[in-house]
TrEMBL record, chain A:
Keywords: ATP-binding, Nucleotide-binding, Transport. This is ABC transporter ATP-binding protein. Gene3D superfamilies: P-loop containing nucleotide triphosphate hydrolases. Residues 8-238 form the ABC transporter domain. InterPro entries: AAA+_ATPase, ABC_transporter-like_ATP-bd, ABC_transporter-like_CS, ABC_Transporter_VariousFunc, P-loop_NTPase. The lineage of its organism: Bacteria, Bacillati, Actinomycetota, Actinomycetes, Kitasatosporales. It comes from the Bacteria. GO terms for molecular function: ATP binding; ATP hydrolysis activity.
Automatic annotation (TrEMBL), chain B:
This is ABC transporter permease. Keywords: Membrane, Transmembrane, Transmembrane helix. The lineage of its organism: Bacteria, Bacillati, Actinomycetota, Actinomycetes, Kitasatosporales. The chain crosses the membrane at residues 33-52, 143-163, 183-204, 211-230, 289-307. It comes from the Bacteria.
Automatic annotation (TrEMBL), chain C:
SMART domains: HTH_GNTR. Pfam families: GntR (PF00392). SUPFAM superfamilies: Winged helix' DNA-binding domain (SSF46785). One of its GO terms (molecular function) is DNA-binding transcription factor activity. Keywords: DNA-binding, Transcription, Transcription regulation. It comes from the Bacteria. This is GntR family transcriptional regulator. The keyword Transcription applies. Residues 17-85 form the HTH gntR-type domain.
Amino acid sequence: MSNTTAALEAAGLAKSYSRRKPAVLDECSFRLPRGRVCALVGPNGAGKSTLLRLAAGLLRPARGTLHVLGLTPARARERVAYVAQSKPLHPQLTVAETLRYGAVLNRSTGRWDRRAAERIAYGREDGEGLAPDARIRTLSGGQRTRVALALAFGKRAELMLLDEPMADLDPLARQQLTGALMSAAEEGTTIVMSSHVIAELEGSCDFLLLVTGGRLRLGGEIEEVTAAHTLLTGTADLDASRQTVIEERPSGRGRTALVRSTEVPDGDWLAERPNVEEVLLAHLRNTHVPPFLTGDASPVSVQRAERARAQENAA
Amino acid sequence: MSDTTTTRPQPRTEGRIRTGGQGLWAVLRLHRAAMWVWIVFVAGMAAAMLWLQYGPYGTGATAVQQGCGTPGHRDCYSIPNRAEDFHQFGGMLDYLSWLLRNIAPVVAGWAGGALIGREVERGTVELAWTQAVTPVRWLTEKLAVPGVLLAAGSGVLVLQFRALLHWADARELLIAGYSTQDYYFAFGPSAVAYVLLGLAVGVLTGFLARGTLSALGIAGVAAWGVTYLVNPWRTRIWPVVTDVQLGKGPFGYAARPCQWRQSETIYSADACLGAKPASLYWPVQLVETGFLLVLTALAVAAAYWLLRRRTP
Amino acid sequence: MTAAGAFKFRIDRRSGVATYWQIVQQTKQALRLGLLEPGDKLPTAREVVEATAVNPNTVLKAYRELEREGLVEGRRGLGTFVRASLGTASSLDSPRRAELEEWMDRAHEDGLAREDMTALFDSVLNERFPQENS
């Protein structure tokens, strides 16, 4: 059963903070299979944090459903770790007391991993981590992030939801903590990391969710998403009715276009496989193009509908 | 890649949430400052009452009354030069009663406002709610732990105040009048209920107000406002003694001098008109306590409702 | 060889070369240079991801590729071990090396600078053996 229930599965998910303002998140449907390291990408204010807060059980959706590890977010609470963007911590506690706070608040699960939390907070080598008796209020932003992540690691969650986890880490800490995250992923933990810096996530993430303007634009395994797009360079005209043109820019006497297709159209075209960054940037600049979800990223309801349609066609 | 998730036991669909609480340590550690304010308040009040009883004013006033001839002749306090201790004692008693009635609920309100408001402001509520503690359980502990401490502290103070009152009455140190009446009827379980109401109102404002400082301000004003509104209700609504004879008023005392001196001061005339029989004590206390606990329950329910509306 | 446990991958994110391919290439180079010999254990996926912060699936993909090429084999519960060598000494000190040295001397006499030689070498190499880097 665990294999079939997704880490996250959203259907028609919407959230607005006020009736008068437009929805922060609208019509979001996607599926994140377990065991992936997912980059949640999008510009500031796109709805990334809202999506993570919904998944963490901190917000109530206005419409639609969201299942976390096959459960409602509130029921999945003890199996999910969440690190908020502002890394809230109690300033009057010391680092050691903060870890004790985490241990106490997770006591009921019997899963608290004190050593894992301490390894993240204090580091394994000298000069890597923090002093146990340092007060939270004396810590820098990056050091607070380390403590917040230590709590998340200590929880030994099946799903880690991290809002901008790397934003204020120095390069050394970033490398060390990403390494720790990857080794958690290696054990089967699903990780979702949000960021507006794409380069931060390359290499460590294998799944992608792109959100802009509260809507989901791209979703799926990074390899699959990039493989579904082609970068065409040539002088011929593109027939927009034959493939979805994400972006077209003049280049010399001809043009360079990113299209959502693997077929090379007639004419003299140089076809290249775009990298993630090119695909993402093109979608960020052109938000009118229809969204694209790979099979893995489609909610089960959608998959079922497609299977039914395929069967109908076959019959 | 080893998929450890497959080996984990699958949750039952019902009754599965094994969420625990934050525990005593976490609540006390996080709100150590508020706890110390309360401890200092309780200790300070207790010390002040002991000092009043056994300090210079108490002993001085007792000496005045003892050297005053026959019992029943109770106007020694009007003897020039010797009256000072007696009047100081009365004044201090009045002051302590005011602190206990008006400030204790406000301190509780501040504690409640700080308990929630600070966590909301810092975002640490979300830290707590994303551990294995449900928001409802979290709030319950935030109410229960300080609730017990506040009830215990104010309960001790109320008992001590009543003991002081009886001690003073036995030594004929109480001046008949409005305030003695008031002490008698105000201090009991209802004083504890006021403190709990202060906490509940504070917690509610902690959720509603933006920022800790405004929560503290609003909680203080609200807690004090309720006290201000309920006090007159207590003194006006209950029937008064019409047959003003010795033994009918509280301590069997309050009614007498007012009849005696009715024409001289408005103050004692007031007290006389409002004199209530001692048998009313428990009805007054229980009705008032019940009313305050209903208000407390409403404030707590509103806090839970706000919490439920915010979180799934 | 006990030092094999300490074998480390160096991932260059800006090279534009896919991460899994860097791991494959570095393993092969280590085989050529004799840093790894048959029977040696490759670092576990966990060790690699902790040290390099790359996605574990990437490491596993690289190891699968090496396995497909018959260079390593995964033993359940034990790890991934080197199976074959890639002609260690020969690449460092072989007749081919002498020929290359001779070629470089002649190129130098013809006035080719260091960069020209690299470009020429890469060009021919890519023409003959196109990179399978996807």
